[in-house]
Every structure is written in structure tokens, then in C-alpha cells.
Amino acid sequence: MAWVVLVLSGMLEAVWATALSASENFTRKRPTVVFALSLTLSMVGLAWAMTSLPTGTAYAVWVGIGATLTVVWGFFTGAERFTWLRGLLLVLLVGSVVGLKVVS
């Protein structure tokens, strides 16, 4: 169960990072509210998952999921330029996250 909460919290990290950018320095109400809610839920989920998972592993998985999804969202929306090297590095990042789970 902790792994499911951790993955969902990592996904929410991508949501709050994207909403933070869209808030334009907290001047836009909707993205600011999405940022605050997703940040809170992401942190609560991470904290809860850390009660039964090793802190270093939980944090690395959380960051890896959030960073990967944020970059992929950037590719999808055109905010980030896709290159094969960036794609390969994201595959390596995801592989490292999966590897951390496997060896835990």
C-alpha cells in the first residue's frame, strides 16, 4: 500500500510543479489553488509512505516519478523540446526508480 501512495504522491509532484509554473508567480487563481492542493497531498502522501519505506528510497522514487512526468508533460505540451538523448535519459531515470523498488 505504501508503494501505491508513493507513486500517486510522485504523480502529484508533477501536477504541483506544472501548476506552479502556470500560476505565473501566484497571480493566476486556478493554477495557484491546484498548486497548493496538489503540493499538500503530495507531501502528506510522501510522509505517510516514509513511515514504512526507507526514507532515501522513498524520496528518490518520489522525485524520479515527479521529474519524469513533469518533463514528459513538457514534451507533450511543447514547453520542452524532445530529443532522443533526453528520452534515453528519462528511460534510465525510470529504470533506476524501478531498480530501487526491486532491491528494497
From TrEMBL:
Pfam families: Multi_Drug_Res
Subcellular location(s) per record: Cell membrane
Superkingdom per UniProt: Bacteria
Keywords per UniProt: Cell membrane, Membrane, Transmembrane, Transmembrane helix, Transport
Record-annotated membrane-spanning stretches: 33-51, 58-76, 82-103
Record-level GO cellular component terms: plasma membrane
Its membrane topology: Multi-pass membrane protein
Main location class: membrane
Classification via InterPro entries: EmrE-like, Small_drug/metabolite_transptr, Small_multidrug_res
Family the entry assigns: Belongs to the drug/metabolite transporter (DMT) superfamily. Small multidrug resistance (SMR) (TC 2.A.7.1) family.
Record-linked SUPFAM superfamilies: Multidrug resistance efflux transporter EmrE
Protein name listed in UniProt: Quaternary ammonium compound-resistance protein SugE
GO MF terms, alphabetically ordered: transmembrane transporter activity
